[in-house]
Each structure stands twice: as structure tokens, then as C-alpha cells.
Amino acid sequence: MKLSDIADNAGSRKKRMRVGRGIGSGKGKQAGRGGKGQTARSGVRIKGFEGGQMPLHRRLPKRGFANIFRLEFAEINLDRLQAAIDAKTVDAKGTINAESLVKSGVVRRAKDGVRLLGRGEIKAKLTIEVHGASKSAIAAVEKAGGTVKILAPKKDEGEAA
Predict the structure, then answer these.
(1) Are 104 and 83 in contact, with CB atoms under 8 Å apart?
(2) Would the N or C end of the chain have less CB density within 10 A of its end CB?
(3) Residues 17, 18, 19, 23: is their CA dihedral positive or negative?
(4) Alpha-carbon gap, residue 3 to 12, rounded angstroms
(5) What pLDDT, in 10s, does the model give residues 61-107?
(6) CA torsion sign, 31 to 34 to 36 to 37?
(7) Domain spans of the chain, in order of start
(8) Are 28 and 35 in contact (CB under 8 A)?
């Protein structure tokens, strides 16, 4: 092999299309830009423009608000927790909390805490520490002989206590 023999694979580099070079090239006349006018120019900004009529998104009223203090919980149902215990990814003997659920891969991320919901049933006797739980979930865990401890939601550092 010589240095002069080295070449790219066939078809690995594509030549750029030269537009506006006659009708025989296939990209002549309007050069793939359609008709004339605003859309044929660069810097087009006509999304939502209705020819001077008040656009629909401005005619409709504004509704609701975004609560900046809202807490987002990671939710887990009892049946998912029982499946993780059966698969031995969660240790039923120790305390089950947000950290252990994330570590075992049952919950992807803890967000502002974990909330336990009551779908399904639990057979194991568990000690669970979560930031929130439904009444049915607490009843199901206590029926199986376990306990549920509700933790206070995480507070922001700048928030007054």
C-alpha cells in the first residue's frame, strides 16, 4: 500500500448541490424554494401570522397559572413495590426510602420525594419512609404488618421555615 493509494470509500463524501444554475441541473429557476415572496427569502417569520388579523393564540384568553412552589413527587404503587421485593431488588428487611428505591432502580429519580399509592397488594412486612402516601396504601401496608412513616417534604434553602 502506498500513500497515493489511500482514498475514501465510494459514496462516503457527497458533493453539495449548486442551486440556481439552469433548468437542466434540476435545481434551477427557484432553486427548490417554491414560489416567490416572503417564503422564498431568508429570515422568514410567518408562523402564526394571519395576514394582519389578530392571531388565534392572541384572540384566546389566558387561563390558569404555574405554581412555582408545587412539589413534584415520584409515584410508586404497592404492586410495583411487591414485584421489586419478589425480584429481590429491594430488601424487605431494611427501611425502604427514596434513596433505596432509586438505588435499586424501582424509581428513576426521587424528584421532591416519593409518594406511595395504593394499587395492588403487599404481602411483605415493610418499614417504609416516604414523603406522601394515600390512605389506601397506608392501610394495605399496616394490614400486612408493616409501618409507613410520612416525612416532611424537602424545603428549599431560601425558604423561611
Answers:
(1) no
(2) C
(3) negative
(4) 19
(5) 999 999 999 999 999 999 999 999 888 888 888 888 889 999 988 89
(6) negative
(7) 74-150
(8) no
Cell of 143: 394490614
d(CA 104, CA 88): 9
Report the helix count and the strand count for the chain, using DSSP H and E: 4, 6
Q: Is the separation of the CB atoms in 120 and 136 below 8 Å?
A: no
Query: For the whole prediction, is pTM greater than 0.70?
Result: no
User: According to the model, what pLDDT value does residue 155 have?
Assistant: 61
Which residues 6+ apart lie within 8 Å of 9 measured at CB? none
**3-state DSSP call for residue 101?**
helix
Polymer length of the chain: 161
What is the CATH code of the structural domain delimited by 74-150?
Answer: 3.100.10.10
Mean pLDDT over 26-45 rounds to 86
Element (H, E) at 81: helix 78-86
Residue 161 pLDDT > 50 = no
